[in-house]
Structures are given as C-alpha cells and as structure tokens.
Fold Bradykinin receptor B2.
Amino acid sequence: MSGNQSNTSEDHCDFDDSLIFTLVPPYILVISVVLGIIFNVFVLMVFCLHKKACTVAEIYLSNLAGADLALVCCLPFWAENVRKGYDWPFSESLCKVTSAVIYMNAFCSIYFLVMVSIDRYVALVHPLSHERIRRPFYAKLGCLFVWVFGLVFALPIFIYRKLKFNPQSNLTHCSLNFTSDQYLAYEVITITFSFIIPVIIILFCTVKIIQALRKRLMEALNIQKTDQKATTLILAVLLAFLICWVPFHVTKILDVLQSTGILKCHITLIIAQQISTYFAFFNSVLNPILYVLVGKTFQKRARELFMLWNKNQTASFSRLSTRLTSFKFDQSSN
C-alpha cells in the first residue's frame, strides 16, 4: 500500500492484468462500502454511545475501529483506479490524500494492536506492579501518540505521491515519485517500523499472555471474567492481524529484494502481491466481526444500546400517539 500500487502493470515481468481489473474493483467495493464502513460504524456507535465509560482495552479497540473505518472509506477511489486499468481518474490532491490516509491508518491499526497487546501483557503478567499505568487517561494519551506517529510516517506519501502521465500506455498513474535509492530506503524503514518491530512486540506479549493464563489454570487461580473475556477477544484480533498482514509484508520484503537484484522477477511474486494486498484490506472487515462473535462484553454493550434505543423509540411513539389522540379529540370537540 505504501509502494507503487498503480504500477503493477509496469513490472519487469509480463503479467496479464485483465483478471485484476475485473475481480478487484467489486471486491474492494464489497469489503469497503458494504461491509467495512457499516461494521466499523456499528462498532464505534457501540463503544461511543454506550453510557458506561470504555475500559483501557476498549479505548484501543475503538481507535482501531476508527482507523479501519478511515482506511476502507478511501478504498472505493482505488477500486475505480483499478477498474480503469490504473488510469487515475481523480485529481492529484485526491491521489495524495487517499494514499496518505490508507497508509496512515494501516500503520495506526498495527500500533493500536501493539498497544492493546501490551495492555493485556501488563494486566496478566504484571497485574500489581503496573496497575497505575493501566488507566484510561494513559490509554488516550497512547492513542494520540499513535495517531501523530502515523501522520508523520504518512507525510512522505503525501509529499511524493504525484500524477505521472505515461505516453507509452497513455495512462495517468498515481504513483510515488521516488528514485530507486529513495524507494529502497523508504521500503526498508516501512517494513522495519510497520512490520518487524510491531510483530516482535505482539508475539512477545502474546506468548507471555498465554504462559500466564496456563500458569494460572495449572495453579487453580481464579481469573477475573472481564480479563478472561477481554484477553480472548484480543488474542483473536491479534491472530486475525497476523493471518491477514504477514503475507502482505513478506511479499513486500521479497519485492525489495527483487528491486535490489537479489531476486529475479517472477510471475508468482506478482500474483502473491496482489492477493496479499487485498487480503490485508479484509482485516478491517474481520475485526468488527470478531468483536461480535468473540467479544462477550461487546455483545453485552450492543444489546444494552439496542434496548435503550428500542426503549426511546417506544417512548417517542407513545408520545406521538398521545399527541395525535389529543389532537383528534380537540378536533371532534370543535
């Protein structure tokens, strides 16, 4: 996503893009408009409109839903770009903004998962000594730091994304205006900070969390139900992240090796890049589904919010009926 999405057709290997132009646009529209936007708006409504304040884990998960929502809102523009054969039909400003937003929110999503995995690690492995830092204020401060960090990392995308007309293909590409050295340095930094470092932290925390849970079960220690429910949901979200994003970053690493000449271009790599990119996008749809299926506390919040909404609707309908009845009575009296 941070590289030349629009330049697939200009790879050194010959590749028939017709299947991509046919299948990818409807796929992107389904996961973005039909699923991604609706599901993530629902998650944000449950977290933000509920009377009870969010826990630390829920603050991170609500910000994750916000990042996923912003990401999928930009995907329809890329669907249209792919449908037109990578001929960008919009302005250069939109090219810059949508690319930067996609990159920024993909980056933020990863680090919100890092934050939530650290929170579970502290809650289960060091429950007493680190209780002070597990407060909503610090969680909100951490989320603000992640958003700022993501914005900084998205700046090169905003600055260097430009529209370039290719006279050979008669197409206008929305692509990164990097030299080969700049591209290599940028990809190495991106892979390091958006994949290697966060995955190491997530795997370390996950292993420690699982070990702590097993130890408590073996020692017959009681685990608070709220901690157990939150941990189950977060482990499911972390697993979904690894399944969806690891293939994408692995293909990015192979692409960097190819650009340096260490690996030769192969049709399999191009196909893998396409599949892994759009599979990574699906993670933004999968997260809300996991909240509903696995998150017991989220299910409870959603039911309570629905009941409150239903109660308000019933009360509003009752008041309206009373007013209509009174109006009809006054009319008949006159």
